[in-house]
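note to self — DONT lose this again. spent like an hour looking for the file last time. sequence + predicted structure for the chain T wanted, 268 res
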Amino acid sequence: MTAEEIGSETEANQGAPAFAIREVPFDAPYSWLAAGGRDMWQVPLVSLTYGAIFAIAGLLLAVGLTQVGLQSLILVLAGGFILVGPLLAAGLYETSRRLEKSEPVSLASTLRTGFFGGKQLVYMGLLLMLIYLAWVEIALLLFMLFQGTTPMPPLEAFVPNLLLTPTGLGLLIVGTVLGMALAATVFVISAVAVPLLMVERIDVVTAALTSVEACRRNPKAMALWAALIVGAMLFGFVTLYFGLVIMFPLIGHATWHAFRDLVERGGP
């Protein structure tokens, strides 16, 4: 083999996913949710406590924004939670992994994994946080473009303004489109990346490429899975974060089973 052929093969391998991706049926996300529900009820104290921590954190942030007169940013906060959610659920992936292997599960081990992951998880967290900060900046910039330099109104006035005025509708449409684009980007690069980083000694780029390939090979199933995740999170937010106590661990456990179903470890 010539040097040119070796170089070409190396470049091809660098751009290819490191793991084989299985093709799953369109309705596979429902089985992931069912498996996630079984995991959650095997260790309800661990799962619901984990969910309660993030529900309380979200509620406290919402109260804090209200106290300083920035209630309108609660909507931005809710969108940001979806962006960083894949990493926040790392402890739940570890719990499902332990249940799968019949290993002991404890709240301490779940929290330790969730808050003190490995180095590559930290890098993934930085990437998702940068996307989240970009979302906040975009939201504030859009508000200034559509609403001018007027102070941000309270939430009870902001919502009617969004729905009943031309500038508000413009802000709502453009903000929704950009927010969905960012959320779709995060979903594609992280759908299976975080669980994969937890069980394999690989880098963030390889994990993200594997996640992209999983979405490319299963577009219908992954679109359904993304819609179910968004629906579950929206339910959590409209119930004043209390619904997150159940929805967050349910989606977290189900994500592990999505990873196990989609990624064939030990593949090419």
